[in-house]
Amino acid sequence: MSNPTVGTSLETCWSEGGRYSFPSSGSAMTISSADTNDTSAGTGARTVKVDFLDSSHVEFSETLTMNGQTAVSTTSTDCFRVQLLTVLTAGSGEVNAGKVYIGTGSVTSGVPANIFGTVVADEGASSQGVWTVPAAKTFYMQRMVISADSSKAVQARLAQRVAGVVYVVGTSRLPADSITPIALDDYAPLAATSDLEWIQLAGGGGGAAVDVYITGIVVG
Fold first, then answer.
1. Residue 110's closest CA among 94, 121, 95?
2. Strands 81-90, 11-12: parallel, antiparallel or unpaired by DSSP?
3. How far apart are CA 47 and CA 211, in angstroms?
């Protein structure tokens, strides 16, 4: 997961910048692309799998056929947490030509008013610093690697949101131009329905690019 331009205020580790807003309730969502080549017969992404949780935090998935910048609705009307987007089939370009979005609200040039997930152009799958532990499951984080590629130091945090209350369960300060591995053996298990968010801020006026790599296991 990556945020290419972290500022001096806390931002989620995702390509959109700023803080991620979790949906307040389940609803139908739409997928769309910023590029017209991501369509059923185009050179880019043709079908995209959406892994999501409903409002009871039960896991579901749907496969949707892309229609370029035009919104395509999910069958489910209870998409509550977007877990993963994956390009399943593509044309001659073999990957999504533009950024693929999932969200709600009006769609302008392929971009929904409320964005809940993205696949960066040419990457084929989403990678963003938000994830929710499914119902009846427990998540055990094992290792986290954080890198900052600019001349600015970065503070990174892992936040856990449970029943509307946010707890900071880990903080790391990174020197400029560094890669910092963090062993997480002492972290408490993260319970079912917990929203997890990896957030960071940069010093020195901001502008740092930050990447985070996480490993862990889901039990249940």
1. 121
2. unpaired
3. 27
Residues 34 and 109 sit within 8 Å (Cβ to Cβ): yes
Q: How many CA atoms lie within 13 A of 16 on its CB side?
A: 24
How many domains are contained in the chain? 2
**How far is the C-alpha of 44 from the C-alpha of 80, rounded, in Å?**
27
- Cα separation, 109 vs 27, in Å, equals 22
Of the chain, the end-to-end C-alpha distance in Å amounts to 25
Average predicted confidence (pLDDT) for the chain: 91
* pTM of the entire predicted model: 0.93
Q: Which residue range is the domain that position 34 belongs to? A: 30-119
Residue 18 or 177, more confident: 18
Tokens of 120: 């960066």
Q: 201 falls in which pLDDT band (50, 70, 90)? A: confident
Whether 25 maps to a domain, the answer reads no
CATH number of the domain encompassing residue 210: 2.60.120
